[in-house]
Specification:
This is Carbamoylphosphate synthetase. The protein is α/β, with parallel strands linked by helices. It contains 3 helices and 4 strands. The chain has a 4-stranded parallel beta sheet with strand order 3-2-1-4, sandwiched between helices. It is globular. The N and C termini lie far apart (24 Å).
Length: 91
């Protein structure tokens, strides 16, 4: 794939989702090393995933179907990675 959409971890709470922020940021690094463009949706500006220089493009939008569908229509990714968003991404 040339471009993938990553569903981020969203809001973090104590004891939940921190590991998904880490795994998502590692996935972004690995994809970029393979020259795959990364597009991230994550409403939480205070995560490693949304740090400057991580994803090629970041959308700070709620992780709800309407917004995800808009980004998919706009970006036209080759694939969507849900597993790095934890339960939020899977829902």
């Amino acid at each position: 794939p040339k471009k993938v959409l990553i569903i981020g971890s969203g809001g973090l709470s104590i004891g939940q989702a921190g590991e998904f922020d880490y795994s998502g940021s590692q996935a972004i690094k690995a994809l970029r090393e393979e020259n795959i463009q990364t597009v991230l949706i994550n409403p939480n500006i205070a995560t490693v995933q949304t740090s400057k220089g991580m994803a090629d493009k970041v959308y700070f939008l709620p992780l709800v179907p309407e917004y995800v569908e808009q980004v998919i229509r706009s970006e036209r990714p080759s694939g969507v990675l849900l597993t790095f968003g934890g339960q939020t991404g899977l829902n």
